[in-house]
Amino acid sequence: MKTKQLTLLLLANFLIIPTASALTGSSLLEYCKDVVEKNFTFHAGSCVSTIDTTRKVLDKYQTDIVGRENAVCFPNEVNSADGLAQLVEVVSKYLEDNPRSLGLEAWGLVVLALVESFPCNE
């Protein structure tokens, strides 16, 4: 049973990573428009999952990703549906305000948007 689970995890890893790294800011912005317009499509799910997964990784490994501790401090609400909607709005606005960066990988742009929008008060 453990071998089957490990095989599935490895397979999922190979299927997900190339897709996630190929997603650009332009595509993410289009996908997130579906969320904002409450069109719950596959693309809307891709928007939410890209942003939420990046947020979780950033929260746990921000020193490695940003290069310093306490670069970003998320409010507790981000773990709720309303909090996810706020993150989608924040990232969408960042993408709209930075059209020259839309050709870059989406996850990096999400990191930039979140660090800019949720700085820690030191």
Task: Present the secondary structure layout.
Elements: H1 2-22, H2 25-36, H3 42-66, H4 81-97, H5 106-117
Helix pairs in contact: 2-3, 2-4, 2-5, 3-4, 3-5, 4-5
Structural overview:
With 122 residues, the chain is mainly alpha-helical. The chain has one domain (2-117). Helices cover 71% and strands 0% of the residues. It has helices at residues 2-22, 25-36, 42-66, 81-97, 106-117. Helix 2 (25-36) packs across helix 4 (81-97). The chain is globular.
Which bin fits the share of residues in helices? over 70%
* Number of helical regions: 5
What's the shape? globular
Q: Uncertain segments of ≥5 residues (pLDDT<50)? A: 1-20
The total of beta strands comes to 0
Main sheet attributes: strand count, strand direction, barrel closure? none
Brief account:
Helices cover 71% and strands 0% of the residues.
Give the tags.
122 residues, mainly alpha
